[in-house]
Each structure stands twice: as C-alpha cells, then as structure tokens.
Amino acid sequence: MFMRVDRLQTELPAPKKKDPNAAAALQELLGGKYGEMSTLGNYMFQSFNFRSKDKLKPFYHLVASITAEELGHVELVSHGVAMLNNGPDNDGDSKPGGDISKSPMEAMQEIRLAAGFLSNGGGATPVNSNGASWNNDFITTTGNVVTDLLHNFHLECGARLHKLRVYETLSDPTGREVCGYLLVRGSVHAHAYALALKQITGVEIEKMLPTPNINLDKIPECQKYLQEGSHRRLYTFSPSDYDGMAGIWGNGEMALPGDPPGELEVVEGMPEGGKIHQLTGVPSAFTPDYAPEEMFEIATKLYKASR
Amino acid sequence: MFMRVDRLQTELPAPKKKDPNAAAALQELLGGKYGEMSTLGNYMFQSFNFRSKDKLKPFYHLVASITAEELGHVELVSHGVAMLNNGPDNDGDSKPGGDISKSPMEAMQEIRLAAGFLSNGGGATPVNSNGASWNNDFITTTGNVVTDLLHNFHLECGARLHKLRVYETLSDPTGREVCGYLLVRGSVHAHAYALALKQITGVEIEKMLPTPNINLDKIPECQKYLQEGSHRRLYTFSPSDYDGMAGIWGNGEMALPGDPPGELEVVEGMPEGGKIHQLTGVPSAFTPDYAPEEMFEIATKLYKASR
Amino acid sequence: MFMRVDRLQTELPAPKKKDPNAAAALQELLGGKYGEMSTLGNYMFQSFNFRSKDKLKPFYHLVASITAEELGHVELVSHGVAMLNNGPDNDGDSKPGGDISKSPMEAMQEIRLAAGFLSNGGGATPVNSNGASWNNDFITTTGNVVTDLLHNFHLECGARLHKLRVYETLSDPTGREVCGYLLVRGSVHAHAYALALKQITGVEIEKMLPTPNINLDKIPECQKYLQEGSHRRLYTFSPSDYDGMAGIWGNGEMALPGDPPGELEVVEGMPEGGKIHQLTGVPSAFTPDYAPEEMFEIATKLYKASR
Amino acid sequence: MFMRVDRLQTELPAPKKKDPNAAAALQELLGGKYGEMSTLGNYMFQSFNFRSKDKLKPFYHLVASITAEELGHVELVSHGVAMLNNGPDNDGDSKPGGDISKSPMEAMQEIRLAAGFLSNGGGATPVNSNGASWNNDFITTTGNVVTDLLHNFHLECGARLHKLRVYETLSDPTGREVCGYLLVRGSVHAHAYALALKQITGVEIEKMLPTPNINLDKIPECQKYLQEGSHRRLYTFSPSDYDGMAGIWGNGEMALPGDPPGELEVVEGMPEGGKIHQLTGVPSAFTPDYAPEEMFEIATKLYKASR
Amino acid sequence: MFMRVDRLQTELPAPKKKDPNAAAALQELLGGKYGEMSTLGNYMFQSFNFRSKDKLKPFYHLVASITAEELGHVELVSHGVAMLNNGPDNDGDSKPGGDISKSPMEAMQEIRLAAGFLSNGGGATPVNSNGASWNNDFITTTGNVVTDLLHNFHLECGARLHKLRVYETLSDPTGREVCGYLLVRGSVHAHAYALALKQITGVEIEKMLPTPNINLDKIPECQKYLQEGSHRRLYTFSPSDYDGMAGIWGNGEMALPGDPPGELEVVEGMPEGGKIHQLTGVPSAFTPDYAPEEMFEIATKLYKASR
Amino acid sequence: MFMRVDRLQTELPAPKKKDPNAAAALQELLGGKYGEMSTLGNYMFQSFNFRSKDKLKPFYHLVASITAEELGHVELVSHGVAMLNNGPDNDGDSKPGGDISKSPMEAMQEIRLAAGFLSNGGGATPVNSNGASWNNDFITTTGNVVTDLLHNFHLECGARLHKLRVYETLSDPTGREVCGYLLVRGSVHAHAYALALKQITGVEIEKMLPTPNINLDKIPECQKYLQEGSHRRLYTFSPSDYDGMAGIWGNGEMALPGDPPGELEVVEGMPEGGKIHQLTGVPSAFTPDYAPEEMFEIATKLYKASR
Fold first, then answer.
1. Could you tell me whether strands B2-4 and F265-267 are parallel, antiparallel, or unpaired per DSSP bridges?
2. Contact in structure between B282 and B88 (CB atoms under 8 Å)
3. Percentage of chain B surpassing pLDDT 90?
4. Rounded CA gap, B245 and B235, in Å?
5. How far apart are CA E4 and CA B44, in angstroms?
6. Looking at residue C247, what DSSP letter applies?
7. How many Cβ pairs closer than 8 A exist between chain C and D?
8. E136 with F146: Cβ contact below 8 A
9. Among C282, C103, C19, which residue's Cα sits nearest to residue B169?
10. Cβ count within 10 A of residue E6
C-alpha cells in the first residue's frame, strides 16, 4: 500500500516567465527513456514481482523503498513542467476568462508540444520532449535479481546523463532546481544499486561512478543538498518498513570520492520536503473553468462543512 | 510525496494452480483501457496539474487521495497476476534449477502472453490481456475540473464493467478475490466522483449507479467487504492530509440504494490490509537466479547486519 | 459530406457457432496492414487532400467514390467479427444476466483476443488479428497522383492476398461470405486503380491482375457476385456526384480475362445491399445491460413517440 | 452503407496566408484524443456493435446517424488543415515546378509537423498536433449502452474544450470557421447524448451543459449557425433511415438555456453545406506532380468521354 | 558499408514439424526487448553516432564489428522462425495450390500470432512473441561511451536470460540450435563489453558473468561451439577493418572460468558458417504464388542468361 | 551473413553550421514511412523469408543484394544527421566540458527534435522528422513474389518523392549530398524492381519512371554520380554471391530515357566509397564524456597493443 503527503520532496521556486519549451525539455525527465516514469515503472513492477522476498529482504527493501521515492520524483518533475507552462504567480483565476475571440493563445501554436496546451492546459503528462508516450517498452522486470539490479544501475547512470543535459538547456530557476535536486538523489540510487550488485557479485561496480565523468560540485543547484548530506541518505519512505536495506546502504560504506565525505545511512520515514506550489487557474484556458467563481464558493462551503 | 507500507490492501488467497491465461485476463485490469494503470495515471496527473488547489480543496483532496489508493490497486492486481503465473505455494527456490535441456517450459509456448514468461518470468507489466502496452493515450488531464471529474466518473463505470467481465472468466480464488475487492472500491470511487459532480453542477448523476445495472450482492466475493462497510468509506491514505474531501464524501450522503445502508464517511489513514504473498522463486526460470543459495546467504548476513 | 443507409452491402448468413478465434482472424481484414481500415483511411485522406480536383476530376471522383464504398467494407467486416463473437441467433436479451458467480465466461480466457471480449463485449475494433492497433503508419497520402495511385494498386493486391488467406482459415459461412464478397469488390478496386494508372502513364499495369495468381472462379462464395456482374461495376455511392470516373471505368474497358466477360460500367448510387443482422444482446456480458427490460420499454415508448 | 456528396458541411473561407503551424494546431481536432477521428471511431464502431438494435431503435438511430455527421467533421477539419498548409488561392499548378535546387522549401524545416510536408505534401492525416498517431486506444465500444452513452457525453464535453482552445490559437479565418461550426454541432451532440442518458437513467445530465462553462454567444464565428437554428437540429444524414431518434431529440425538448431558444427537431437528410475548396496543386512540391500539364490534358479528355 | 554473403552463421537442422507457436516463441529473440533487433539497433546506431572514433579506435572497432555479427543473428533467428512456421522439407512448390475452398488453413486460426500467417505467410518480422512491434524505444545511443557500453553489457545479460527461457520452451531441433549458437555468441559479446568497461573504468565487471548464474556446459546444443573455441573468438566481420579491438579482446585476456579455457583472440573476417536452408514455397498460401510454375521457368531462363 | 567495411558509400562534405532542424528533416529519410529503415527492413525480411530461393534465384539475389546496399544507406543518412547536429569540424574533444552551469545548451530547447539532443547527444535514431518511431507497420513481407516486388517498386517511388522534398528544404552541403547520392541509387532500385516485375508479369512498368515526373538532371548534386554511370550499376555488395540478378539487371536493358544512356550492368563487390567523417566529441554534452582525456590515453595504449 501507499500513502500520500501533501508536500513536494523539495520546494520549487516560482518560474520567472511562462516558458513552454523549457517545460517541454523537462518532459524528457518525465516521460523520456530515462525519465522518472521509467525509474518508477521499473522499480514498482520489480518490487511487485520480486521473488523470494523474505529470503532476499535487503534487496527487496531497497527496490521497494526507492519505488516510493520515485513517485515523488514523478511528482516533482510534473510540478516543474506545469509551473513553467503556467508562468509566474498571479491571481488570474479571480475573474472569468474574458474575450476569447481575439486569439489570446496564438503563441501556443509555436510551442514544441502544442498538444500539451491544447489537450492538457499546460499540465504534465507521461510523454517525452518530442511528445512520444512513455510505455511498457521502458520497463525491465525479469525476475532475475542480478539482471534487474544491473539494469537499474545502468538506468540511473543514463538518467544522470539526461538530467545533466536537460539542466544545460534551462535558465529558469524552477527547472534548474528540479534538476539539481534529482541529480543528487539519482546519484544516491546509482550508488545504492551498485552496492547491492557488489554484495551479490563481489564486483566493485560503484567505482564506475560518477558516470558521466563530472562531479556534482560543478552544479550550483546541487550544493545545498550535498551540504545537508542528502547524498549519503536513503529514506525508507515508510512509517516502519524497508529498513532491511541498511545492510546494503550503511554497514560502513562511505560517500563517493567526489562528494562531501561521510558514512551512508538509512533514515526512517521521508524528508521534510517543501510546500506544493499553487498553480493558478487560467480561466481563459478553461482551467479550472471559464467562470470559476461559483465553483470556488461551493468549494469553500464544502470545505467548511468538513471541518 | 508518497510513502509505502509493506502490505496489500487486502489479502489474496494462494492460487490453486498455475494458470497463465487467467493471469493474462487479469492483465486487462492492469494495463487495459479501463485498468488500474489508467485510473492511477489519470488521477495522479490530474492531482499534480490541479489548478487553484487551495480554492478547490475538497475536490483536489478527493482526486489526490484516490490516487494513493489506486497505487495500491495497481499493486493488488500485479500480485494477482504474478501469483496466477506462479501457481500454488511451494519451496521451489530451495534448490538450483536442475536440467534445463528437456524443454521444462514447453507449456509456456501455448499461453496467450508468452512474452510475460519469456521477458518477465511471469511477473506483471502494464499491458492489457492482448499484450498491448498501456500509454499516455489513456490519460485525461484537461485542467478543467468538470471535464476531468466527468471523465473520472465514466472511467469508474467502464472499469466496473471490465472487472465484472474479468470476474466472469475466473474460477481460481486469487483472481476472484482481486475482482471482488476492486468492485467494491471502484464503486466507492464512482460514487465519490458522482457526488463531486453533483456539488458543482447540481446534477444527481449518482443516480446512474450502478452501471452496469447489477448490484454487488450478486458477487459472493464482495460480501465481506460490503458487510464491513468498505463501500461507505473513503480513506485519506495519508497521515494527516486530504480530509477536506469530507465535504463531498460525508455531509449526510448515504450508501447507494442497492448496497448495505449507512452514511458515508472519510477515514484518516488507510485500511489495515493484508499480508503480501510470498512469490516463490523458480530457479529453473532463473528467478531469483538459477542457483540462488549463495545469494540467500548473503542476504541473510546483510539483513542481520541491519538489525 | 456523407450519408448513411441502414443496410449492409451484402447480407451475411448467421454464424453456426460462437467462434471468437474465427472472429479474430477476420480482424486482420479490419485493422491489419491491408485491412479495410487501411483502404478506407488511404482513400479518404487522399480524397480530402487531392490537389487540382477540378482539373483531375476523373481521378478525384474515382478515389472519392471508392472511399464511400470502403466505409461499407469496414462496416461489413465489423459485422462479421461481431456476429462470429456472438454466435447463432437467439433471444438471449429477453431476460436478465442470471448468476454470474459461476465463471460463465471462463472460455473467454482462452481466446486469442481476450481484450475483444473483456473490453468490447465481442464487438469489432480497428486492431489486427494479434490485437495490434491500426494507425496512421498505414496511410499514404503524398499528394502526388501517380505515387498515390500506384500505392493504391499495390494495396488492393496485398488486400486480395490477405482476404484469400483469411478465407482459407474459415469454415463458418458468416466469415466466408464476408471474404467472398470483398474478394470481388477488391478486384474491382485493383482493376480501377490499374486503369487510372494506365491512363496517366500508358503502362498496362492491369495485366498484372490477378495477383495472387488465382482466379475468383476457385472461390464458391464469389460466384453469385460474379454472375450478377458485380466485378464489372463501380457504384458512385452518391446521389448525383462522382460519375466523372466513367472516363476511367468504362470507355470500352472490359472485365479481366479470368472473370465473366463484359464491359465495365459506372452505376449511379449504390447496390441494393442486404439486411443488417440483429446482434442479440447478452445480458450476462452486460450488453446492452445486465437487466435490460426497462431500457427496452423506454425505447419502445420513445420510438412510438417519434412516429 | 454510406453515400458521399461532393460538398462540405459548411463552406470555408480561403486562408489569408500559408500557415503550417496553424494547420498543426487544427490537427489536434483531427487526430488528437478528443478529435473528430475519435468521435467518428467511437460512434462508428458502437453503431456496428450495437446489441438489440431493434429493441433499442431510438438509441441505435442516434449513434448511427451522428456517425455519418462525424465523417463530415473529419472531412471539414482535414480541409481546414490542407488549406492552411497550402495558403491563399492561386494558379500555381498551371506551370511546372521550376528550379528545385535553390532550397525552395527551406521554410518547411522550421514547422512543427515537418513530416506533414515531407510525407504528405501538406495534406491532413490522423495525427495530433504533436505528430502522434490516432489509434484504437481512443475508441470505447463496450456494448453496454449506458457506459457507451456516458462515454460519448464526456467525449463531446472534452471535444468542446479542445475546440475552444484551438480556436483561441487561430487568427486565420479558415481555421476559425472550422472551430465555430464544430462548436455548434458538437454542442448538439453533447446535448443529444445527455438526453439519451436522461431517458434511460432519469438523470438530468444535460444540466451540466455547457461544459466548459462558457456560452457560444462569446464566439463570433458561431453566431450565424446559432441564428439559423443549427443548435436545435439533428439531421438523419440518411435518405430515409434513423428518424427513430426523434423520440430522444424532439418530443418537446428545448434548446439549452444559453442558446437561442426553440424546440429540438430531427431533420431528414443533411444540411445544404458549402462548396469544397479547390486545393491548388504545387508542382514544386510534386503535387499533383512536378510537370502536371499532360495529366491535366488526359483528365480533360477522360472527363469529356464520361459525359 | 556492408557486404553480404549467402550463408548463415551456423547451419540449422530442418524442423521436425510445422510449429507456429514455437516460431512465435522464437520471435521474442527477434523483436522482443532483448531480441536481436535490439542488439543490432543499439550497436548499429552507436557505431554510426560514435564520437571521436579515431581517438577511441579499439572501442569503436568493437561496437562496429559486433554490429555486423548481429545482422547475422537477426538473419539466423529469422530463418529459425520461418522454418518452424513452414515445417519439414518437402517439394510443395512443384504444383499449384489446389482447392482452397475447404478451409485448408483452418489451423492457423488457433496459433498465437495469426497475423504472422495472414500477413506474412509464415515469414519472420520484427515483433515479439505477443505480436508487439520492435521500435526506437529499445535503442540506447547516448554518445557517452561509458553509458553506452554499460547499457550494452546489461543488454547482453538480459539477452542471455531470454535465450535461456526461450530454449526451455523448445523441443524442436531448429529452434534449439538457434538458441545454442546464440548463447555462445551472446556470451562473447557480454564478455567483450565487460572487458571494454574494465579498460576504461578499472572495474572488473566481467566477474559478474555468467548472468544468469548457469554455465553453458548445461546446454547440450552449446557444446560443439564451445569445443571449437567459438567462445574465445571475436571476428572482425570485415575484410580488413576493425582489428583494433584486439587491444580489448586479446591482450592476454582469457576465457571465462566456467567455459573451456584458453586465450581470447580476434579473427579477421567471419566464420565459415553454414548453408541457408531452402524454404519451400507453399502455393496454397500463395508463396511464392498460387501457380508458380511459369515464374520458375522465367527465373531459370534469366539465371542462365546471367551465367 | 554480413560483413562491414569502415567506409561510407559516398563521402560527405562537412556541414557549414550546426543545424539541428536540418538534421531533423533528414530524419524523415531515416525513420519516416519511406525512409531507409523502411527500404532496409522490407528487403532484409523479404530476403530472409524468400520462398523457393533456388528456383527463383535471380529475384532472390536482387532483393538480397539490395538489402546490403540499404544498410549503407541507413549508415549514410545517419552520418548526415549526426554531422548536421554536430556542426563544422573542430577539436572540441581535446579539453573537458567546462562550466555547465551557464545554460550552454539553451538553444537545444527550441529545436524540433529536442529528444535527439537530450537522449541521443545529437546522434541519429530510427524516428521520423516528427520524432515518431519506425516500426514493423512499415514492413511488407507477404511471401508472394509479385506482391512483394510491386510493393518494393511503389516504395522506391515514394522514397524518391520524399528525398526530393527533403532536398528542397536543405541548404547545407552535407544533407544535399546525402539526397543527391540517394536519389541516384534509389532510381536504380526503382528501375531494378520494375524490370523484375516486367520479367514475371510482362508489364513494362519501368515506363512509369521517373515518378515524380522530374529528371535527375535538375539536381546538381546528382550529376557526378550520373556521369560516373552509377545509375546503370547494381553492385552485388558481396565477395562472390548474388550475381544471378544479372539476368534481370543487364541482359540488354538500358538506362532510363531521362538519364545518361548506356547499358545496365551488375558489378561484383561494392563501390569504392568515401571516408567516414570524424564526429568530434563534445565534452560539454558528455560525448564521449565530460573529461575524456584519460579515455583517449587508454585507447591509444590499447590500440598500440593490438598492432
């Protein structure tokens, strides 16, 4: 089972401008080959299909708990996409959509993922930066533990490469924060799968890290996360389960050489996270609707009734 | 953010036989048009993309918390699939895979979803009962609240129809339990979206229920859930968020006429759920591997180290 | 614009048994590469996109009118599929669906296209015999007249091959009638596109026919259509348009050597066609619903009101 | 069976400029999730697969006749796409394509759907505004009448939202006319499915309209259609069939509150429609060919022969 | 550039019976996630896109030459598929197809991949064992050498697992020989990519082999290839290029512990290979045609003219 | 079996500027409907699946040897794509990637196929100019020789049209050279399939050429290839096989009327071809890596060891 908490894993700064093509670049980290839907889909189905769960508890716990973190990554990138499509904060939903007969959305014709506006009103969906859908072809769940872990290790390296490239295309703080945070957490996952493989096979595959061959100290947005030690922490993302992975992540293992030094540790629960950004409605785009006032009133009344 | 708990939403009985075609039928409820990946995908992205979240709190809370429940539905169906592919409990992983040169898996040639064995070792993946992948085409997230809620109401009615048909094809208790449980919970979701629509539009759309026109009292596997009142309960699936939906689900609203009577209520947290079934490894299928003993030993040692 | 008439292009005999795998074979003629969705999609979009329509009237009329006939082919194959999935005529919808807890649809687990039952209740959809969807990749509309006509000629030859093979798998009269009728009409279309190409390029490409190298006199189900001269006729499928194609089909051109001799002719309007088969509802499959009596009553009352 | 008439449902003004990105936006209304291929595909297959057609005549007639109208919608949007890709009227096909070695089509590199030029010469195809193909995933045909009608009602609401958004991106009269016309006709369909549902279920679901919450009086391009009463009319799109739907559309039912008042009526046959726009050939793009004169001469001769 | 030689990499024994479901299982090795189309597609595009080819010659040569070998693997599996679909050798094409009106292909309705007969006449195509198409989602070409090599290493491990499972489903010698040969050659590729990674990163990743954890000595069909030392050899598959990979494969490196011992060596050119099996035509399936005699005569005459 | 030679079929001039949208246009010739992946895929699988190979040797040899040439076309277009994405020659990989925190790749947000940079570092992949994947739907392999050859003839005509249109969009010499070369070779293939069809059917279908109706003398980039007689030559692309096709290509057949005159001839082996262009690494894009010096050193050492 899964529970949900109404916070993001990290707080995202408001975007400086409405920038649908930056949002589209970020889509690669959501629905692209190495995007968060892929990491989520892989670990989620691997954890469901895991054989001999009891006998392989530390490995099962690792895959199972990272699944929960990946849900939050999908959420984080999705918020980044929607925020960049929406633009800076405003109070746009406080009045109806006005005159729509003057082509108010003409600019949306020129954006890369026009369907993202036309069908989704600027919301995120599991497609890549070219608009191609994420699907089952991106999932590996063989039931063979070494094959699956090896796949996961390679997936995290590929995902790191993609995050780096997406980061290089972004100038807006919203998207850069998404990348900075995910680069640190993705490094943790690559490291964790490497240690799991090392335990089973004896191969010190963590020495391949970092791949690509660049340290996180080159990315300003990563620094605050490194300084607070995020790169040394795996959360159980659970009230009381999955701590068996401490046999892999911990047990005297240390941070990677290029990162701030220190011992690896499993932390029960989840990080404190940050506030979820308010996405203003855009009545002229019919979100939440063209004339939403009555809806707001109803909602206020219902909310009071629930207190 | 999301948390995970190492339990299923309900406990599944062990299958009586290995039955890959029954598992394939169940796949329709996982990756089919109206499967759990669709309900999850729709509500998850709608909740991320929700505009004016604060002003529309009861509606946002509803979609957000049902998302978390749907994660557990994806998990439940996936376990059903893997269990039916695997067959009755045994201790198969206690010794290596033996002689593989005598076509030990010849029967797998004749099953409907051969790739489910060949690529996934009998694990679940997000495909339908014909092996076609789930994808973004199944997601509606327009940002317009009425359109999205109306979509969700129709989706739950369609999903109910599919569960009924899948149920009719199954004789094994594992798959039938999955259907029985999901029929009750799906009815709750249809009812909830109907009430949300009624609040905004004034249309008593819940009077369309049940669609299809059959009461749950005809399904033996639903009875225990109805008797414990599951059909009257929405869980927040959260430690402390999302209770704002009580303005919609509650507030004097009652169970549907064909179901055991009583008032609707929002319950903080999640149901107790049941134990996750142990999926035995099948060394002859290389799960967790052909000769897994050493892996088991390593895992045991690591687990002890983590205590 | 298009109009619709409540008849099939030819009348289909009732199936002798419920035969979902035969229906699945017929799906290849609906959603397969060379199926009727492909012929429809190609000619429909070519006719919309046709350049210099006035100056090229005979060619435009040819493609435009065959489009209308192909709609009827899609309809015919779809009825064949649904009839074979449904089985012999009966009065099944005169009472509710009964006890559904005894696995009444267990047989549907073993059929090739299980999703056709689970999601579509035995109805036809645009997928091939493996359940893969028809899509835009099957459409050629280049705007270059020779390229498009050449494509169409090849498409009709390929379609003839597929119809022959599907025919060879069928023993039930419903599906065989579909194939027999379509083989005759498909030959007309191949012949027509060949003549159009000959007019533009001077190449006597109709001499490649028949491809594959077998005459229709080998197919018992084709005989009645050949005897009534169907192979020599192109219908305008229009009240008063598209007769300009008579410059291509007609003009002294004769039937192909292996077919009954005679001159080609354009016929205004459409063939008389046959009755549409009543597809009985199956309340246990929730079609039209589990307990449809009230719906029938309402419909009767509404129908009377409309007289 | 279907017939075809060589007219559009409404006449489209010539575009003011060649505008491939506007054409691409319009593609969302053709091959997007809620585009005309989806409405066509859903109603067409539902009408083929309809169970108990005789007993449910008014409902069957409704779905069957709207199918025919949707064919004309697919046609209308396709013409809009091709016209916008082609640009203002001219006599470009009166001479050969000239020197092609000076990159005459360089501008086509920058358009959103480059394949629309490279493969389709500016013609329409069933893809969305991102170039992703329409496919079977967009079709719902469950055989359960309430589920299917409910799906159709939601589909028309979603389609209305998309038409509004596409409209907001367009400044050229061609595309705006397409949207204006379709908004009126789509409202009719949403209203019709609502009334059908009301008859069966008793739920006054038509009170949800309009969704989104904006009246058509805000759209200048809708006014002439509203004034002539198009919003109160359902055509049978048939010479003599399908009038049984008058029990649903009619029978004292009135226009929606925000639209010009009046009673609903079923009209036999189809609207008068407008002229199909001549798409000029572009020899430099090889449509109908690079040097088409001889082809034009042949066509003229053949056309005369057919008189 | 590529050249072709009219031989298979190894000779395949004739099948003992026509076995379309065995052929379908083999399709997983052709168009499945870890099939030969995937290994081919990955290495081919990686070799085209390889950056700094001169400076990284040993690595470029490795990927480039294995590409050529994979072409032969695609060919080998395809022949296996077609042979199993076709059945034992015969002289079926020496007379026409006979009476096709007695449902001679009825058995083809029941096979798993019916489209493989209906559309492809029993030929191989790049789909998996469920009929889903191979596509670009299976290709990784990042341009980052470590990421790509790591991907390739994991791909070969996954491919080995799949070959083992397909092997376990097959009793016919044709398919088993395909698997036996490919298991040996796939092990070579896994080993080679491991050594390449070791050279760059210093990680002895080849110690993960074999994955899955089973030695090839358990597979009778592998023995003759092991005995002739195939597992120690990389061919350049080129008249005179690509021998720079000897710095990686060779250089004192030895066979893997579980295999017959010996030094690794690069061999210029290609293996001797075996005869391509004659696929008999099946005139009743219209291959090469229904009445092929005249075609054979023409071919004979043309062939003589070419001598 | 296939062999590989480290040369391109023709030498490509370096691009004048980095031009990702030109590269994207070229992608249509790689992964589009009529792109080189399609010609390769069709002929490759047709040659594998060819029935009665011995009896139909000239036809089998034709399809088999053109397959090998198409591999080189896929290679050629891929290099064109990668070169245009990469830009003019430089020594960029001689130092590390520098400061990546200043959005050095911001321009990549605006390109049409952003995923081509983000996921593939500017490398080619089998997608079309809209980013949609090539797949099995583009393959025709029916096993019926006339149908397959007719398909191939139409495919080459369609491919010629597409090459012409892509050519018209390109101003950079790299892409234009690709088109010029392929137009000549594609004409050879269209001509060859026409002659094969003529031999079997007696229809002089080669008289349809050229389609579209424009001679290659209008394309400056084709002239050098025409002058060296490339349009009259088919290479066996084999050390000693496939010369049986000389019965079709040769045998007194002459060049097409619009091309430089002369007799057709089969040439054993392959053309001399040209040098493969060095694709410089871009460390700031992590190709071959961010800090590749050590990798270069290792490679140099390994290469020396292999001499």
1. unpaired
2. no
3. 97
4. 10
5. 51
6. G
7. 345
8. no
9. C103
10. 19
* Chain F: residue whose CA lies nearest to E199: F298
Q: Are C207 and C159 in contact (CB under 8 A)?
A: no
Is the pair A, F in contact (3+ CB pairs within 8 Å)? Answer: yes
Q: Do E170 and B101 touch (CB under 8 A)?
A: no
pTM tops 0.95: yes
Backbone angles phi, psi at F214, to 5 degrees: -145, 135
**Dist. CA C189–CA E74, nearest whole Å:** 37
**Residues 6+ away with beta carbon under 8 Å from C17:** C87, C88, C172
What pLDDT is stored for residue E307 in this prediction?
87
pLDDT < 50 stretches in chain E: none
Please state at what angle helix D293-306 crosses helix C173-201, rounded to 10 degrees.
120
Choose from B172, B213, B222 for mutation: most chain C CBs within 10 A: B213
Which class for B11: exposed (0-12), middle (13-18), buried (19 or more C-beta within 10 A)?
middle
Please state, in angstroms and rounded to a whole number, the distance separating the CA atoms of residues D65 and A13.
53
For residue F144, give the nearest of C138, C161, C202 by CB distance: C161
Q: Is the dihedral of CA F72, F73, F76, F82 positive or negative?
A: negative
The pLDDT of C116-137, averaged and rounded, is 98
Between CA A235 and CA A62 the distance in angstroms is: 10
Q: Do chains B and E touch (3 or more CB pairs under 8 A)?
A: yes
Residue A9, SS3 per DSSP: coil
Across the B:E interface, residue pairs with CB atoms under 8 Å apart total 93
* Chain E closest-CA separation from residue B211 CA (Å): 33
The type of residue at E267 is V
Task: Give the C-alpha separation, F81 to F178, whole Å.
Answer: 10
Strands A2-4 and B2-4: antiparallel
Exposed, middle or buried, C58 (CB in 10 Å: 0-12/13-18/19+)? Answer: buried
- Could C119 and B112 be called an inter-chain contact, meaning their C-beta atoms sit closer than 8 Å? no
Q: List C235's β-bridge partners, or say none.
A: C267
Cα–Cα–Cα angle for C83, C86, C89, nearest 5°?
Answer: 80
Rounded Cα–Cα distance for residues D210 and D274 (Å): 28
Instruction: Give me the pLDDT at residue C90, please.
Output: 85
Q: Report d(CA C35, CA C132) in Å as an integer.
A: 12
- Give the minimum alpha-carbon distance from B231 to chain A in angstroms, rounded to a whole number: 18
Q: Each residue of F130-151: pLDDT tens digit?
A: 999 999 999 999 999 999 999 9
Taking 50 as the pLDDT cut, the residues of chain D under it are none
Q: How far apart are CA E37 and CA E132, in angstroms?
A: 13
Rounded Cα gap, residues B16 and C226, in angstroms: 57
Single-letter amino acid code for the residue at D115: A
The encoded tokens of residue D51 equal 């169970």
**What whole-number distance in Å separates Cα of residue D213 and Cα of residue A292?**
8
Amino acid making up residue E123:
G
The amino acid that residue B209 corresponds to is: L
Handedness of CA E216, E221, E223, E227 (dihedral sign): negative
Q: Does C145 sit within 8 Å of D5, measured CB to CB?
A: no
pLDDT, tens digit, for every residue of C8-46? 999 999 999 999 999 999 999 999 999 999 999 999 999
For chain C, helix, strand, coil in percent to 5 are 55, 5, 40
**Which structure tokens are listed for D124?**
């329409």
Rounded to the nearest angstrom, the minimum Cα separation between B60 and chain D is: 18
CA distance E191 to chain F (A): 17
Q: Which residue has the tokens 């064992």?
A: E129
How many angstroms separate the CA of residue E162 from the nearest CA in chain A?
9
Closest residue in F to D99 (Cα) is F218
- Assess whether chains A and C touch, using the rule of 3 or more C-beta pairs within 8 angstroms: no
- What is the number of H-type helices and E-type strands within chain E? 8, 3
Report chain B residues whose CB lies below 8 A from the CB of A124. 45, 48-49
